[in-house]
UniProtKB/TrEMBL annotation:
InterPro entries per the UniProt record, alphabetical: PorB-like
Keyword Thylakoid annotated: no
Species of provenance: Candidatus Syntropharchaeum butanivorans
GO function term, MF aspect, one: oxidoreductase activity
Keywords in alphabetical order: Oxidoreductase
Highest taxon of source: Archaea
Name the record gives this protein: Pyruvate synthase subunit beta
Length: 84
């Protein structure tokens, strides 16, 4: 289980207050993750992190995502992360 906390949801609204459907170009899953090639969990996390943006805190439960992110200091997530 991976919980993603977004600090502010206002960035998803345009200047008229409507929700936008754009996804950022920034990558928050870095090279060197230890997941299997084509891992659907990492692909899903990649898109979730792009939608959530840089003001995000990731709380990772005991699952394969803990192994996929790698060992400190060479983790693959460019966001603050807490493994439980």
């Amino acid at each position: 289980m991976v919980l993603v906390f977004v600090m502010s949801a206002d960035k998803f609204k345009d200047r008229h207050g409507f929700w936008t459907n754009t996804i950022a170009r920034e990558e928050y899953i870095l090279k060197g993750n230890s997941s299997c090639p084509g891992c659907t969990a990492m692909i899903a996390l990649r898109h979730i992190f792009k939608a959530a943006g840089p003001d995000t805190f990731v709380l990772v439960g005991a699952c394969c995502a803990v192994v996929c992110e790698g060992v400190y200091p060479n983790t693959c997530m460019a966001l603050p992360t807490l493994d439980t």
